[in-house]
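Q: Hi! First time doing this. I have a protein sequence and I read that you can turn it into a structure. Is that right? Here it is:
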Amino acid sequence: MTNISFLDKIASILIENHLDNLSNTIVVLPNKRAKIFLIEALKNQVKTNILSPEIISIEDFVQNIAGIRTVDPIELLFEFYEVYLSITDKANQQSFELFANWAKTLLQDFNEIDRYLLEPSHVLSYLKDIEDIKKWGIEVENKTVLLEKYIDFWKLLPNYYQSLYTHLLNKRIGYQGLIYREAVNNLNHFSNTVRDKQFLFAGFNALNAAEEKIIQHLIASDQAKIYWDVDQTFLNDPYHDAGLFVRRFKESWKHYKLNPFEWIVNDFSQIKNIQVIGTPKSIGQAKIAGSIIENVINGNPEGKLDKVAIVLGEENLLIPLLYSLPSSVGALNITMGYSSKNNPAQILIAKLFKMHTNALSRNAKSYVLYYKDVLDILTHPLVEPYANTNILVKIINQNNYTFITHHKLMELNVVPSELFLLLFQKWEKGSIPVLQTISKLLQMIKENLSNDNEEEKITKAFVFAIFKVINKLINYYSKHLHIDKIETLYAIYKQVIDLAEVSFEGEPLNGLQIMGVLESRVLDFDTVIVTSMNEGKFPAGKSQNSFIPYDVKRELGLPTFKEKDAIYTYHFYHLLQRAKNIYLLYNTESEGLDAGEKSRFITQLEVEKQKNHTLSHEIYNAVLPETAYQPMVIPKSESVMLRLKEIAEKGFSPSALTSYIRNPIQFYFQKILRISEVEEVEENIALNTLGTIIHETLKVLYESFVGKFISESDILNCFKQIDAEVLKQFKLVYKEGEIKKGRNLLAFEVAKRNVSNFLKVELESIKNGDAIKIIALEKTFGRTLNHPNLPFPVLIRGNVDRIEERNGIIRIIDYKTGKVEKASVTLKSWKGLTEDIKSDKIIQVLAYAFMYEHDAKGKPIEAGIISFKNLKAGFLPFNFKEDKEINSIINEAILSNYLEQMVLLLSEILDVNISFEEKII
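A: Yes, that's right. Below is the predicted 3D structure, encoded as structure tokens:
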């Protein structure tokens, strides 16, 4: 049995009953989208040319009766604020931000009161009485100013309503409720002017009081007919929410006392294959939807997809879904727009707002910009290729500019482009100049984009969508000059951008249909895939965004969450009504940001399972790969070997050798490919920067003592120079970075403390009779290593922090700002020295000893570390611990064993057959 779609039946009625008078027939549908499908249904049923009936949505129809233009929520808020200021004493007037917090909710309530044709003064005074009762027990003397204002607010509601209603009516504009109320008031006049017209209402479910009145009036005047699309399964069950509204209308409308109720169908109980599929998270649902479509195509390669619909319970699944669809999906029709929220142009404008509002809130006069805000804009893909600011970005990064005044920024960019000047023009002349600047900026971005490049064409569409939003805001602001704060402008911009969408181009009657829940009204499909079947998504769940309490709504006949759920229920069951194959996808995760319990609709289908329904339930989990990550392996090519030879000639540093031990791939990137870390602003001083500052300070303090023995007076003299020298080194190393406050001030004090503590230890040693002679400071040494196992000689080269002679022993010192324990420089066995990164400090200090051996001229050598975080331990020399014997003097045997290990390491590095293999830690 083939199910005839609802729109096919409507088309048949039009041809049978209205063919001679189609041009005077007006079909009213719940939404605009169904119009194309109805025209197609008519086209399929006629053989000759005919004039199409006028097909209109209910909202447009009511607007025509009222003769009033509808306004968007933001414009309405502006108009309401205008009214609010005109009827409120200046002393009690609130700023637009505070006003907007409660005005949005109040406007929603006004809208509901009007749509349901309630007496506004009765409802609003009812609310005031409720609040009075709540505060009844409070004595007069205990009533605070805040409480008085609160009660006054409720008293003012009827006045707000009446003033706004009159104000809007005078302008012939209005919100939906006002238009509906005016349409009802104008109904007699309207029906007299359209005596020759016939109205046909089709596919409705929930009607508000105004819609009911309009439709019943036209039916009673014999000017209209209404056709419902309700299944007997829902209509005959007094508890089924899918039939909640239609049951009410069938029982209460006078028309149905004498006339039949059309149409009650029996489609839901027919044969259906329903598959309920659970999978973790949203992306899984998109992937499964894609694989279902692939199976549909494979099952019927010649078949069309125009009777297949994917209904997204959550619209942000659209992009993951599009990526998951198989390439064999030819035509595609997406009924929802793509939000302007997260496209590159909108992100740029949002960053621009952030930068300028932050600068204004810091200090409007000096206009100080934060470096991250500046770099975010300068490196944005719509700015970077066209603003010519690469040098400026480099200057900011190299000099650690954290906060930059507007004046300084202009100084740093010597030849600014027009785009740069627009981006960084000060926002201090009010909202309209700001919006005009953004408008110019968007036009300039548009000029930079090419029509030949597909991606740039798409970007252009987004730029245009935001350009329209900005122009709309210019229009609003030019009419309402008293709302002029940049913060308010940003808040309004964010709201408007949420509503802005870029439409997809597509053939509405061809191919796979992707839609939101509301777009599916009146339409019928053979295969339906519904995603996000979770509580809070489908149905949407409770949201109490109203000043009118639940029990008052029940009493007055206003819709509550129960009615809203019933609307969702109808949409859901209507989707299933004529479908043969149904796939319901839900997120199995019940906790987290993107989660919720399995939808009650699924449970309802299981509990109230029809005889002809096949219902299966499956859980899909992602296939986890056996290996999460395959380590990188890079073979040694001829050019790699040439580079290794070049390094061997210039010198392998101890840190290069330890970086190979840590991770050969790291060595490959840094030493072979010479990829250095990206230079970034150091907002907080990094540990290596702090280490450099301490090293450089000690070098300067001790420079004058090279070749001499140090005396107590020398050290005491150094103490006096600490503050000035550390500050000087900070300026040299950290450049323009801020060191007068925050964590950097602490780092500055730590550097001074470390240097001071080091000098105290030194002074103590001299007092105890140590003879200390400085031989070298921060000096580079090198020594070539020749060995038969190496393919060519290798230079070992490195920078030594300090070499001294102490009591006749040469001491090679490496400063470490981190904490180092004695165990880190103690070796028990030479075996595996180059395999364990824990031995990195031993490899380093012994390399220094090897390099300096000839210069020592036979004097005993010690090599070790001074750790600034472990100064109490003093000098930590390398020591070889064999049995219980500890030896800290580096003799020939130690160096020979060390070199043997180094040769093993270097021969591995230089072996063409051993690839660089990533170490997974």
